[in-house]
């Protein structure tokens, strides 16, 4: 049976593909969902991709994942740099956590170079565009021992 992986996305990522293509590319979250669903089938992983502009909603999904999911891939967006609440929630999750950033946050403003979520993440992918989600899913396959990636 496939293991379920939550792919959580934070504020403004619903606008992917509509604004700032020079930073975030032209693809949408729906494209990410399609690509990861297809790849997940090869890897023996089922994905559930979610996005919210509300911190508490993401905390609630992390709590839900505690029973439902084998791993979490998260792009917390701006909450990366501000949210102790997301860090605390992720610390209640026992499985692997991978943090994804579409842009290379280390090449950008200094406030983007601190991540609360990185204190919990088992791995971080930044600056690989939307491909970063697929890279994280391949790594998740190894970490959850679903199938060799
Ligand atoms: O590079 C990333 O993935 C970020 O997590 C994106 C966040 C930013 O605050 C982080 O520092 C790095 C911003 C997401 C905003 O998404 C937009 C998408 C399309 C148009 C405008 C914003």
TrEMBL record:
Q: Which PROSITE patterns match?
A: DEHYDROQUINASE_II
Catalytic positions are 24 (proton acceptor), 101 (proton donor)
User: What pathway does this protein act in?
Assistant: Metabolic intermediate biosynthesis; chorismate biosynthesis; chorismate from D-erythrose 4-phosphate and phosphoenolpyruvate: step 3/7
Task: Return the SUPFAM superfamilies for the record.
Answer: Type II 3-dehydroquinate dehydratase
InterPro entries named among the record's database cross-references? DHquinase_II, DHquinase_II_CS, DHquinase_II_sf
- Look up the coiled coil feature and give its residue ranges: none
What processes does the entry annotate via GO biological process terms? amino acid biosynthetic process; aromatic amino acid family biosynthetic process; chorismate biosynthetic process; quinate catabolic process
* Complexes and interactors: Homododecamer.
Q: Under what name is this protein listed?
A: 3-dehydroquinate dehydratase
Q: Quick one: which gene encodes this?
A: aroQ
